[in-house]
Amino acid sequence: MAISGKNHIGVWLDNRQAMVVTISSDGKEKVVKIDSNVDESHPKGGSGSSIPYGKQDAISEQHYLERRKNQFKDYYDRIIHELYKSDQFIIMGPAEAKIGLEKQITLLPDLFSKLAQVETVDSYSENEIIAKIRSFFEIKFDHW
Asked: Rounded to whole angstroms, how far apart are CA atoms 58 and 54?
């Protein structure tokens, strides 16, 4: 039996991009893609000294990790902004990013109560993601 009169959202995400699919009560869908903007490069070694065996300028691994953590927080916040438009939502994806998003949502009790499921899935095409979300919420393709 289909759940009617509600906005359902499904989020598919990995470390590079999220696809937020909103399916409204009339069965129409809207897809929003959100780039993570997370720096995937790893810090290189520091520069050498002109003096043999001299002190080198090292790049701080801690600085790199802190910047990356903040980039992920910003990414999750942009996804969460879309989730506030839902009555119920699911999160899915192949990577660790879905777990990070779930942890961020647990800090927001009003939003966390709308979370229906977190699921590990492969990489799918946009149409496959939409079909999976429709299937989860049992929303029929009435407008096709």
From this structure: 12
CA distance readout (Å), 43 to 37, 63, 67, 96, 130? 16, 10, 12, 21, 37
Determine the length of the chain.
144
Could you say which DSSP state residue 36 is in? -
What is the arithmetic mean of pLDDT over 71-97? 94
The secondary structure of 4-21, three-state, reads CCCCEEEEEECCCEEEEE
For the chain, domains (ranges, CATH) are 8-39+59-137 (3.30.420.60)
Mean pLDDT across the stretch 108-113? 96
CA–CA separation, 30 vs 38, rounded Å? 24
- Let me know: does 138 contact 3? Beta carbons within 8 Å: yes
Quote the CA–CA distance of 66 and 74 in Å, as a whole number: 12
